[in-house]
Write a structure and sequence with these properties.
The complex is a heterodimer of chains A (517) and B (142).
Chain A (H helix, E strand, L loop, with lengths): L3 E6 L3 H12 L4 E4 L11 E5 L2 E4 L10 H6 L9 E3 L4 E4 L5 E4 L3 H9 L3 H25 L6 H6 L4 H12 L2 H8 L3 H12 L11 H7 L4 E2 L2 E2 L3 E3 L4 H13 L3 E3 L4 E7 L2 E7 L4 E9 L3 H8 L7 H8 L7 E8 L19 E4 L3 H12 L8 E5 L14 E8 L10 H17 L5 H4 E7 L1 H8 L35 E3 L13 H17 L1
Parallel strand pairs in A: 1-2, 1-14, 2-11, 6-16, 14-20
Antiparallel strand pairs in A: 3-4, 5-10, 6-7, 8-9, 12-13, 13-14, 15-18, 15-19, 16-17, 17-18
Helix pairs in contact in A: 1-10, 1-17, 3-4, 6-9, 7-8, 7-9, 8-9
Chain B lengths: L2 E8 L3 H8 L2 H7 L3 E6 L4 E10 L2 E15 L3 E7 L3 E12 L2 E12 L4 H28 L1
Antiparallel strand pairs in B: 1-7, 2-3, 3-4, 4-5, 5-6, 6-7
Classes of the chains: A alpha/beta (517), B alpha+beta (142).
Chain lengths: 517, 142
C-alpha cells in the first residue's frame, strides 16, 4: 500500500505549490529535496556572514496573487516590496533613463530621448495591459490546444496581435513602437532575459510579453523584492504546505522513479530509501526527470528522443557580490539615490545585445555582456549588515558550454568582464566589492538541476509554450508513464517564479486521485 | 462556475422595478456587452452579445429563456450560446422609498476554451454585475 498519495520531487517553488494545494485538498504528500534548503532557483543564501544573497532568482512580481491568497503565504513570511523606480538605465554617453511606477514621470523621462516615444509610451503600456487581460485567464489552467487558442484571433486587429506576439522579434516589435535607440534598449532586456536568442530572433516579442504578466500589490507589469530575499517565498510555501499536512524533507535527493507494471509507484532516494505513493510529481525538467530518474524502458524511445531535443540552453550567469558601499554611477552621481532602489540595466542598445549574442552563439561568453543588477539592501536593509550592500547581477550571454576551455577555469575571467562592464558606468565598483561569486550555467545545473543552466526549464519561445510545453501532446501535466506528472516550469505557463505550473499540475493530479477513489 | 452578485437600491417603487426587470428587452439592454435584443415570445429572446477580452472581441448570439417569474419578487432566466451558458437571478424587496435589487449572474463556459473563459469571466463578473446595476439605476431613476 502507498505510504503517500503523492511524492513531489524537488522543493522548488513549483514543487512546493503543488504540495501545498494537494495537502490543502487532504492528500498525503511528501516533498523530497536534494539540497539542504528548499526553493530550487528561488533561494536566498548567506555565502558571506550577514549578506543574504539571492543566489539565482532575484525579483518577484510574477507569482500569481491567487496562490499567495490560497496558500496564505503572507502569514508564513512572504512580504513583497514594490520598488520605485522600477528601472534605471545608465548610458555610456552620460545620459540615463528612469522608468517609474508613475506613468507620467516615466513619460517625462522618455521625452528626454524622444517626444514621439513619450507620446507612444502610454499606448505601449495600455497595449500590454490589454494583452495581460487576455493572457491572465490562460495562466491558471492547463493549456488549451494552440489551434483553439488561435481560433480566438479573428479579424484584422486580432491577426495583428497574433503576428506581434507570436511571430515578431523584439527588435522589429519595438521598432514599430519607438524611434529612440535608448528607449528601445530599455525594453529589450525583458525580451531576451534568460533566453538564448538575440533580440532580432522571431518569437522574442512573446518573451517580452511573458515578462509583462507580473502583478504585485494590485499593480500590473511591475517587479519587486521579497523582504529578506527570494528564499522567503519558498520558505513561506514550504511552511504553508506543512501547515496543510505535507511532509517536506531536505537532504533527500531522488535517484530513481520506481516503476511497477508500467506505472510510477514511488521513488528511491540517495540514501536507498524507497517511498511509495499513488502518484509521483516531478518539479524537475523533462530531461532531468526522464533521462536521469525514470528507467529508460519505461517510456517509448520516440518520447525520449523528443525530450532530448527540448531547447534548454543556458543564456546567462549570475554574479553576486557583497559590497562595502554602493556603486556611484557616472550619469547620476548621487549615492545612494533613487536609481539604486530597483533594477539597473546596463544595456546601451539593441545592437549591443545582438552583438553580445553573436559571440555566445558560437560558444563564447560575451566580451561585452548586458547586465541586469539589483541592490536589494537599499530598500531592504535586512539582507546586509548595517552600512553594507548586496549586488545581484544577471549577466548575459553565457552559453551552456564554452567552445574552448571549461566554465570553472573561466570564472575569474568572467568576473573581470562583469566588473569591467559595470566600471564603464560606475567607476568605483571594484573599490566597493568585498566578496563575489560567479555562478555559471554549469553551476546552475549542478546546484539546482536546471538543464544547461536554462532558468525557465526550457525556452519560453512560441514553439515551446502553451500546448507545446514541454512537448506537443504532453502538455497537460500527465506524462506517458501513468502515475507520473510534471509540475515545474517546464510545463505551462513556463518559467519565472509564477507558481502557476505547480498550481495547474496539482489540480490535474487531484482530478486523477479523485478518479482513483 | 464563475458567479457575480450585486445588491443595490433603486429609487422607484417595486411594481415599477418589477415591470422593468421582467421585460427581457429591458433586462438585455442593461447587460454589459449586449448590442441588440430581439424578443421572440413571452419567454424567449435573442441577445447579440459582444465580449471584449483584452484586445480581442468575441461575438455571441445568446438565446434566453425565462425560467421563473414571481411577480414583484423574483425572476430567473437562462441564456445559452454555442460556448457558454448563463443563469441570471433577480430578487426584489421593497425598501423605504426604494426597491432593493439583488442580481446574480453565473456563467459556465463550454468547449475547448472553457477553462480559460471561466477564468476570464471570474475576473470580469464582479465588474459586469456592477455595471448592470448602474444601468438599471440609470434607466429607472432618470
Amino acid at each position: 500500500m502507498a505510504e503517500f498519495d503523492a511524492v513531489v520531487i524537488g522543493a522548488g517553488h513549483n514543487g512546493l505549490v503543488t504540495a501545498g494545494y494537494l495537502a490543502k485538498a487532504g492528500a498525503r504528500v511528501i516533498v523530497l529535496e536534494r539540497r539542504g534548503i528548499v526553493g530550487g532557483a528561488c533561494v536566498t543564501e548567506e555565502p558571506w556572514p550577514g549578506f543574504r544573497i539571492n543566489t539565482f532568482a532575484y525579483v518577484c512580481g510574477l507569482l500569481r496573487p491567487q496562490i499567495v491568497e490560497d496558500l496564505t503565504l503572507g502569514t508564513f513570511g512572504y512580504e513583497p516590496i514594490l520598488y520605485d523606480p522600477q528601472y534605471f538605465i545608465p548610458f555610456p554617453d552620460g545620459r540615463s533613463l528612469l522608468l517609474w511606477l508613475d506613468e507620467d514621470k516615466t513619460t517625462a523621462e522618455i521625452a528626454k530621448f524622444s517626444k514621439e516615444d513619450a507620446r507612444a509610451y502610454p499606448k505601449y503600456t495600455a497595449f500590454w495591459n490589454e494583452v495581460l487581460e487576455l493572457v491572465e485567464p490562460t495562466l491558471m489552467a492547463p493549456p488549451v490546444p494552440i489551434a483553439d487558442l488561435f481560433g480566438m484571433f479573428s479579424g484584422p486587429e486580432a491577426e495583428r496581435l497574433l503576428r506581434d506576439l507570436f511571430l515578431m522579434s523584439a527588435k522589429d516589435f519595438l521598432d514599430e513602437w519607438f524611434e529612440s535607440d535608448e528607449v528601445k534598449a530599455a525594453f529589450t532586456t525583458q525580451a531576451v532575459i534568460g533566453t538564448f536568442l538575440g533580440p532580432s530572433a522571431p518569437g522574442t516579442a512573446y518573451v517580452l510579453g511573458h515578462h509583462s504578466i507580473g502583478v504585485l500589490e494590485g499593480r500590473r507589469e511591475v517587479w519587486g523584492y521579497a523582504r529578506g530575499g527570494m528564499g522567503r517565498i519558498a520558505e513561506a510555501m514550504s511552511k504553508a504546505a506543512q501547515h496543510f499536512g505535507a511532509v517536506v524533507r531536505t537532504d533527500a535527493g531522488v535517484v530513481r522513479v520506481l516503476v511497477e507494471d508500467g506505472r510510477a509507484v514511488g521513488v528511491e532516494t540517495d540514501r536507498g530509501e524507497r517511498i511509495r505513493a499513488k502518484v509521483v510529481a516531478s518539479s524537475l525538467d523533462p530531461k532531468q526527470t526522464f533521462l536521469k530518474l525514470v528507467p529508460p524502458d519505461a517510456v517509448e524511445p520516440d518520447f525520449l528522443h523528443r525530450v532530448r531535443r527540448i531547447r534548454t540552453r543556458g543564456a546567462a550567469l549570475k554574479f553576486n557580490a557583497a559590497l562595502d558601499g554602493l556603486p556611484t554611477f557616472r550619469c547620476l552621481p548621487e549615492t545612494p539615490g533613487p536609481h539604486h532602489r530597483g533594477t539597473v540595466d546596463m544595456i546601451p542598445s539593441i545592437d549591443y545585445v545582438e552583438r553580445a549574442y553573436d559571440e555566445a552563439k558560437y560558444g563564447a561568453f560575451s566580451t561585452h555582456p548586458f547586465i541586469e543588477s539589483q541592490y536589494q539592501s537599499v530598500v531592504d536593509p535586512s539582507v546586509a549588515p548595517p552600512g553594507k550592500h548586496t549586488m545581484s547581477c544577471f549577466v548575459q550571454y553565457a552559453p551552456s558550454e564554452l567552445r574552448s576551455g571549461s566554465w570553472d577555469d573561466f570564472k575569474p575571467q568572467a568576473a573581470e568582464i562583469v566588473l569591467d562592464t559595470i566600471e564603464e558606468y560606475a567607476p568605483n565598483i571594484r573599490e566597493v566589492v568585498t566578496h563575489s561569486q560567479v555562478l555559471t550555467p554549469e553551476d546552475i545545473e549542478r546546484t539546482i538541476g536546471m538543464t544547461g543552466g536554462n532558468i525557465f526549464q526550457g525556452d519560453i519561445t512560441p514553439d515551446q509554450i502553451f500546448s507545446f510545453r514541454p512537448l506537443p501532446g504532453w502538455a497537460n501535466y500527465r506524462m506517458p508513464l501513468p502515475g507520473l506528472y510534471l509540475c515545474g516550469s517546464a510545463t505551462h505557463p513556463g518559467g519565472g517564479v509564477l507558481g502557476a505550473p505547480g498550481y495547474n499540475a496539482a489540480h490535474v493530479i487531484l482530478e486523477d486521485l479523485k478518479g482513483e477513489g | 462556475m464563475p458567479e457575480g452578485t450585486v445588491a443595490f437600491e433603486v429609487r422607484a417603487p417595486v411594481d415599477r422595478v418589477w415591470s422593468f426587470l421582467s421585460d427581457m428587452q429591458k433586462v438585455g439592454s442593461c447587460v454589459p456587452g449586449v448590442q441588440g435584443v430581439e424578443v421572440i415570445d413571452d419567454r424567449h429572446s435573442r441577445w447579440d452579445l459582444k465580449v471584449k477580452i483584452g484586445p480581442l472581441s468575441q461575438q455571441f448570439v445568446v438565446m434566453t429563456e425565462t425560467l421563473e417569474q414571481v411577480p414583484l419578487s423574483r425572476g430567473r432566466f437562462r441564456g445559452q450560446s454555442d460556448n457558454m451558458e448563463m443563469l441570471g437571478t433577480i430578487e426584489l424587496s421593497p425598501a423605504e422609498n426604494a426597491t432593493k435589487v439583488t442580481y446574480t449572474m453565473s456563467v459556465q463556459a463550454k468547449g475547448p476554451l472553457a477553462r480559460i473563459m471561466d477564468n476570464f469571466m471570474r475576473s470580469k463578473l464582479k465588474a459586469q454585475t456592477e455595471e448592470f446595476a448602474a444601468n438599471v439605476k440609470k434607466a429607472l431613476e432618470a
